């Protein structure tokens, strides 16, 4: 099912003009606060009406200002998980979960409800009231409530922003599981690059109400940010083998990485390699503890004060490293040069379904 | 209550029961209108200030004048009163039902105010959440908005009930002072004072009225404080 969106709206001095499309899987709306993310989510849900625009979900037009079509939120079937959960305080967790389910034109079968409750780990909480739940538990209930309303697309508006780091780590695995089982477009709004790098299949970059770029997570998230903060590479690899001492062989287009992760052969892993976790060598290094050394071609070297940002290709995959400017000059790094990237550490998300 | 105060005479008990009946019916009948007015006043529309003013008018209107107006409107000789009397068989003047109408009007602002406070304490975002989950306007009203405003509805009803027990001017002007029909507690106190040697009865009834008002007001305050704390 695909979601096509084109929205134009002007409020005060702010002009929103964004067009993008999303497919089954996670599409992140990514950008700084004030970029228009929440406005877009409200328009997608029908809670706000743009000056002009069109939203089509799986062939069903829910907004077309030119044809005067506006499907109100209660008929739009857009699930929305609010940042502040917004559970109904006078209802038990169970009643909250079933609120949308009861009102759905096509209900999820009863057995599915039990599975959803189990997936979100909510069995123990069904009879409780929202005020007796932690922030993370509330988020999970809000997620379940939206999913059980059988939405055609699900909007997650910074669902982790109100949580502390520990709670965030508690929720992320549920979101990863959701990503793998959902058969609808999931729009994940966030300003946190790390969350987006971990979850998103596609990324729509927003800045000042405009789409600054869109593409796969690997394309959009690999590189350095404008403000000089340290970034890295995002790539997806498939587990193709295992060693006896607990390493998984992960193949991607640019070679093979050995990862200390216990994932089934065939599963797909989202890998993140920070720019300061890569060393660059001109000759193939030997006698290193690092498991992963990739043959790369230097694409560009960008000097900035004492630092040099090195962009490299391994096959079609892109890697980035930040080394000292002194090292880059000593190694005489230049575009087209063949070198070796020594990868000190790789961060791994939970496996996606093969 | 009358059983615990054995010193009350049968007439006094009658006045007490009549007061309780009139107040209960008045509150029950005006509550839906008060809720509707409070919901309406939550929105912005042309004439909002006017409606707000009309709702609060009974707070400043002289009760006797209000009773006189009611008497002219609902008197059975002419106008609306004649129509109600002749075609529907409904008479309000000199009947306890008329006292109910007077009580409804005078306690309306108390109810609207309490319900408004409860509605304003409510997170409007919950309404948006319910919409995205497929709940239409009436569905949201009866399953989200009103249940969440329940403490306000209860507090408003109790305050109105307590205020209604004390209504005097409008009742005596509109429906007179008929024992067993319109002689409520305040009217019974007044009657006792008009009777030689009635001071003891007046004192008893006054103490009873003040006690009732106190109990109801405290209850309403406790509920409203809970509403405000939750906001």
Give an account of the 3D structure.
The complex is a heterodimer of chains A (354) and B (231). With 354 residues, chain A is α+β, with helices and mostly antiparallel strands. Helix content of chain A is 23%, strand content 38%. Chain A has helices at residues 37-45, 73-76, 93-103, 110-119, 135-148, 165-181, 193-199, 217-221, 325-330, and strands at residues 3-11, 14-22, 25-30, 52-57, 60-64, 69-70, 78-81, 153-157, 185-190, 202-207, 210-216, 232-242, 248-252, 255-259, 268-274, 278-281, 292-304, 307-314, 317-324, 338-343, 347-348. Chain A is globular and about 65 Å long. The two termini of chain A are 19 Å apart. The mean pLDDT of chain A is 89. Chain B is mostly helical and 231 residues long. Chain B is 77% helix and 0% strand. Chain B has helices spanning 10-42, 48-60, 63-74, 79-88, 96-120, 125-132, 137-148, 150-165, 169-175, 185-194, 199-230. The radius of gyration of chain B is 20 Å and the shape is globular. The relative contact order of chain B is 0.15. Classes of the chains: A alpha+beta (354), B mainly alpha (231). The A-B interface holds A 45-47, 72-80, 82, 84, 86, 88-90, 99-100, 103-105, 145-146, 149 and B 123, 125-126, 128-136, 139, 144, 147-148, 150, 230.
pLDDT averaged over residues of chain B:
89
Nearest-angstrom radius of gyration of chain B? 20 Å
Low-pLDDT segments of chain A = none
Biggest interface, chains and residue tallies: A-B, 26 and 18 residues
Q: What is the CA–CA distance across the termini of chain B?
A: 36 Å
Low-confidence stretches of chain B: none
CATH class call of chain B: Mainly Alpha
Number of strands of chain A: 21
List the helices and strands of chain A in order: EEEHEEEHEHHHEHEHEEHEEEEEEEEHEE
> Level of helix content of chain B?
over 70%
Shape of chain A: globular
Span between termini of chain A: 19 Å
Structural class of chain A: alpha+beta
| Strand count of chain B | 0
What structural category do the secondary elements of chain B indicate? mainly alpha
Largest sheet of chain A, order of strands side by side?
A: 7-8-9-3-10-11
